[in-house]
Specification:
Blueprint lengths: L2 H19 L5 H16 L2 H4 L1 H19 L3 H56 L4 H26 L6 H9 L2 H14 L6
Length: about 190
């Protein structure tokens, strides 16, 4: 009689382990996680909430690996984690995208102001009849900066805000040297007597 309760307990333990490790893979939960990842990517989470999005992808990958190892409990846990992280990433992406848009807008405005200032200095030198060959290099720099800013503005209009601030700053990095070259060419210009 004392053997029977322990056999029953062992049978219950074996049954619970079989149910926990057996059964069917959590296909529904894994599909929900994949759907949440797709929605997060569409919201821009791969660009604006990269850490959380990457964690969601990794969790789904671990869920698939757990299914391959027939550990369906772990697969379920990972699939649920993936879905939750993907949903968080989608929410974070909205905030990240708004911040990137603001940064990009500010950078473009500052870059345009810097370009306009050097462009005005070039125009003043041209009006003062500084030789064109002396202004050729700074004029070429201004054209290059203008083209880079047009490309950055096109990306901004397309909603690709990530990296625009860096592109605008890189584009205008050559403007101080161009401004100095214009000033030097203007000073080298001989003054005419009245």
């Amino acid at each position: 009689m004392s053997l029977r309760p322990s056999c029953l307990a062992a049978l219950c333990l074996a049954l619970s382990l079989t149910v926990g490790c057996g059964g069917a893979p959590p296909e529904k939960e894994m599909q929900q996680a994949q759907g949440a990842l797709d929605a997060a990517r569409a919201a821009g989470a791969d660009l604006y909430a990269t850490d959380e999005y990457s964690a969601a992808q990794a969790a789904l990958t671990h869920a698939r690996e757990a299914v391959t190892q027939r550990d369906y409990r772990l697969a379920l846990d990972r699939a649920l984690d993936s879905r939750e992280r993907a949903q968080n990433a989608a929410k974070m992406a909205a905030d990240g995208k708004a911040a990137a848009r603001t940064d990009a807008d500010r950078a473009l405005i500052a870059a345009q102001a810097a370009l306009d200032a050097v462009d005005a200095r070039l125009h003043t030198a041209e009006v003062a009849k500084v030789p064109a060959r002396s202004l050729a290099a700074p004029a070429q720099t201004l054209d290059t900066v203008r083209t880079a800013l047009q490309e950055a503005r096109a990306a901004f209009e397309a909603g690709a805000y990530n990296g625009i601030a860096d592109r605008a700053n890189a584009a205008t990095a050559s403007l101080p040297a161009a401004s100095e070259a214009i000033a030097a060419a203007s000073l080298a210009q001989p003054r005419r007597r009245r």
